[in-house]
Write a structure and sequence with these properties.
25% strand; 4 helices; single chain; 3-stranded mixed beta sheet
Amino acid sequence: LRNLGNNVMVFTGIPHYPSWKINPEDKFRLRNSYFKDGICVKRFRHFVPKKQSILRRIYWELTFLVNVLFFKDRQRPDLIISVTPSLSAGLLGIFFSRKYKVPLLNIVQDLVGIGINQSGLSNFKFLGKSVRLKKSFTIVTECANGGPSVRGIPL
């Protein structure tokens, strides 16, 4: 998008994967902004669990979600692109797509599929049925299972 002359702004969490540790420079910052290759990157602090559990995962998701929702310096977008495995990123994509009445592109990475299978929801149709937007499209990528593939699911 940037190479096509568009202004691009990225809202993301702090780096922590796969170590599940917070970098010292991010430990006491609530938010951080910088430019990389002409793209404005805004990083939002969130809880990072040392051990995984459903409650810690919920807290991780909620701290990111709340931090982004309370951030006031937002420009009206023309398009929202949300990337999961973070459930909160998907919810924020839906929220801002509806708030600004703009299209949503949701990219669901293969880690979400693993989580869905582990939780007993083995059909990706669940994702399509759980979100109903007039101008949205979901791409499901499965990179870990023998190479990249992409499936589009119009909602």
